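Lecture 7 notes: from sequence to structure.

We start with a single chain of 272 residues. Read the sequence below before looking at the structure.
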Amino acid sequence: MKADVNPYVPKSATVVAVKNESLETKTLRLRLYNWKAEFLPGQFVQLLLPGVGEAPFCIASSPSEQKHLDLTIIRRGLVTIASHYMRPGDVVGIRGPFGRPFPVSRMLGKDLLIVGTGIGIAALRSLILFIVEHREEFNEVNLLYGARFPEDLVYRDEMKSWTDKMNLMVTLSKASPEWGGLRGRVTDHLNGVVKGEGQVAILCGSPLVMRSVAGELLGRGIKTDQIFVSLERHMKCGIGKCARCIIPGGWHVCRDGPVFSLDEISLDSIGE
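Now the structure, written as tokens:
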């Protein structure tokens, strides 16, 4: 986004595609007119639905695509439910991009471990796509993705392209008998992908799982300043006014995050 464009003023965008990712999750592709979305992986926008309200969503598309935004949305509240009724041609409002992104420059040349659970994978997709497009700039990349049931998995048709660029491990905690992949929680499959000191870890998912994974990584030698978490699920207003997203330490997730390193926040902050 150009420096002279006020990110707090809503800009119009048009829905050009709606993709069913799972039973409760859809990805909206929004076409931007007369402005470009200049953002970094981990940042978010406020989606405004006329007559309904607004809510924050992390951008799920590649930063190299500046003419559209992808937002992956699970049905949970008023705005998210209304978004699932959007169709191509519908006009919405966008404010942003906002927030502190993943520190990509600190990941270059490093071994990476990306852990996403549930809808948390949506906040990681922009980073994953960036890595796929710039694979030569990173060392070994492991992506561990966990969900409950097979029907909860999102981005299934993209996973083949991801496996060409990184080691992808998908595990289900409540797998059906027909499931031929890994079973259990993501914490059951850290052996072999945790390299210890020097590795950078990126996490997003349910608070309790992230706290558990972060604790495991600390115990296996990864330093606090090399573990990054996205706490995007805490946000509401997106501009630090409603105070809903305040976490211990006085941080406003929407204004100071949503990405934090573990030398800034505690494990308890993740788990709340």
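The chain has two domains: 11-97, 104-271. Keep this in mind for problem set 3.
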